Every structure is written in structure tokens, then in C-alpha cells.
Amino acid sequence: MSTTTVRTREQKLADAKFAFDVLRQELSSEPLRLLITKLSEYPAPPQDGNYEAITAYASLVQGSMTLAQIAAANDRAALTAAVHLMDSGVAREREED
After folding, report:
1. Would you state the pLDDT for residue 70?
2. Residues sharing a CB contact under 8 Å with residue 25, sequence separation 6 or more, in sequence order
């Protein structure tokens, strides 16, 4: 006789959230997210006509945005993978005989 553990909706959501958090951390670590924050908070150069400073700042902003897009894409990938793990049964409890 086999028995199946019935899991509540809250348990399933908690498992999916846990899978997402683990995958998200693997794809985009916390140091990367802190770097994005630091780059985006860097102060703009003074408006004194210094072309090199303005160009460097524009490159910094562009790099920060690129990293943010990569982190967002990684988050979407982590969510997709977590959903597939939950849906495929990999993360489900097994039936007991």
C-alpha cells in the first residue's frame, strides 16, 4: 500500500521560494548585486565641461545598467528553473510503500 504526503499550498510555495532563492544566489551572487548598487550610486561629475569625466561617468552608468540587466535575466532564469523543478517532481516528496 502506498501513501502520499499531501502538502498544503503554503508548503509548495515555500519549497518553490526556497528553490528560487538557491538558484538565484548561484546565478547572481550578493557581491554582484552590491557592485550594481555601488555603481548606480556613484555621484555624477560636476558640469564644468570636463569631457573625459562625463564620458567616464556615462560608461560607468552603462556598465551598471548592463550588470543590472544580467542580474534580472538571471533572476528570470532562476524562477523558470525553480518552477520546472517543482513541476517535474524533482522537489516533491516520494510516495512511500
Report:
1. 95
2. none
**CA dist., res. 87 & res. 3, Å (int):** 20
Residue type for position 32: L
**DSSP assignments along 10-73, one per residue:** HHHHHHHHHHHHHHHHHHS-HHHHHHHHHHHTPPPPPSS--HHHHHHHHHHHHHHHHHHHHHHH
Residues 82, 23 contacting (CB under 8 angstroms): yes
Q: Kindly report, residue by residue over 26-74, the tens digit of the pLDDT.
A: 999 899 999 999 988 888 888 888 899 999 999 999 999 999 999 999 9
d(CA 56, CA 64): 12
Beta-bridge partner residues of 3: 96
| pTM across the whole model | 0.73
